[in-house]
Amino acid sequence: MIRTLPRVAADLARQMLRRAPAHLAPRPQADAARLPLATGSIAAVVLVDALLFPAEITRVMAADGVLIRANQLGTDGPLFLDTPTAIGTLGGAWSAVQAGAGGGRAVLRRAGAAGAHRVSASRVPERRGSGPR
């Protein structure tokens, strides 16, 4: 079990891990549904063109952590999930700042966390989610 590290690059596909520079971060091959990370140990979870595993993300993310989501193809991408739907899936109260171009990028923070009130060009109102189903 990895405890607290400055950064970790995890992926299920060994080919993707081979592309990540080894000197930048440990690169465990791991299923995003069961990450080998301690509860609350991650300050920032970054998902690029990745599925959202809400229970696991909220488990590993620190209470004041952020979730950064990017879909490079925006609304045309096969893994696109709009921010209000992502918030609903995560459960609890979240605030979000979303990029206006393409709708494929957002930074989410649990509501009430330090810094959750930051203002940006495009802000998604706080919404309570029903949690993972």
Compact summary:
The protein has 133 residues and is an alpha+beta fold. It has helices at residues 14-19, 54-60, 83-90; strands at residues 42-48, 61-70, 92-98, 105-110, 123-129.
Topology:
Elements lengths: L13 H6 L22 E7 L5 H7 E10 L12 H8 L1 E7 L6 E6 L12 E7 L4
Parallel strand pairs: 1-2
Antiparallel strand pairs: 2-4, 3-4, 3-5
The count of domains is 2
Radius of gyration, in angstroms, nearest whole number: 15 Å
Distance between the termini: 26 Å
The count of strands amounts to 5
The shape, in one word, is: globular
Summarize the amount of helix as a percent range: 10-25%
Instruction: Catalogue the unreliable spans.
Output: 116-133
Q: What average pLDDT do the residues reach?
A: 78
Task: Give the class from helix and strand content and strand pairing.
Answer: alpha+beta
What would you say this structure looks like, in words?
The protein has helices at 14-19, 54-60, 83-90, and strands at 42-48, 61-70, 92-98, 105-110, 123-129. The chain is an alpha+beta fold and 133 residues long. It has 2 domains: 1-36, no CATH class; 39-129, no CATH class. The protein has a 5-stranded mixed sheet. 20% of the residues are buried. Residues 116-133 have low confidence and may be disordered.
How would you describe this structure in keywords?
133 residues, alpha+beta, five-stranded mixed beta sheet, 16% helix, globular, disordered C terminus
